[in-house]
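Write out structure tokens for MotA/TolQ/ExbB proton channel domain-containing protein.
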Amino acid sequence: MQSTTKLLSRPFLWSLLVLALSIIVVQMFYATVVSPIAENALTAGGSAASRGFFVIIKDAEQQVCIIAMLWCSYLILAKAWALTQAQPLFRLDFLAGQAEQGELDLPKALNELEQSQYSEQPLLQTWIICIRRYLHTQDVQNASDAIQASVESLAVRLESGNSMIRYLIWAIPSIGFIGTVRGIGQALAQADEALAGNIAGMVDSLGVAFNSTLVALFISIFLMLLLHWLQHLQDAMVVETQAHCEKYLLKHLHA
């Protein structure tokens, strides 16, 4: 039941919705813009090996790559947005009010953190784990070890959460290579015509082969840039989480 609930969580449903919208929008764009313009360009005497933008992206492999690019971009930007939304929490000391009153009621603080609307944020989760450990052991060192373990677990969760993004970035060049294989296969099937002097069909097929790889590689480069930016934000959050706990939480526990 718990795994099913997680599978049908709001971020998962949003990602499916974005995927469906990407398919619909790209299909409409191809049907109304790309295919007519590319067909007119080819009819006017061009070939699939030409470098007109709409001719380059006209084939099915490029269409699939663009859909995957939009979906992958959403997954990256959604994760980055969630990280930026958590930034204000790093400027707060969650025990400052009790410290100013001169008494530290950790059970009360733990209950407030667990009931907070931000209780699912990694920073508050780390605070909750650390305070629980301290209440059980009454030892600051054990609480410090709990912070370290929680931060390491956070880093692993963030890394594993990028698995779909890494898969899409790997899959896009592979889709481009499928187009390359398809185009080369079509070109070889027209070898007899080329030997007879009619090379137009072979040139068009080779154009399909190289255009699909070209588009896929450009998209992959763009998505890798976004992924590295996301990983930078995630690494910064891990470091800030540990620093925040050591600066504020351990200070109160030592007091």
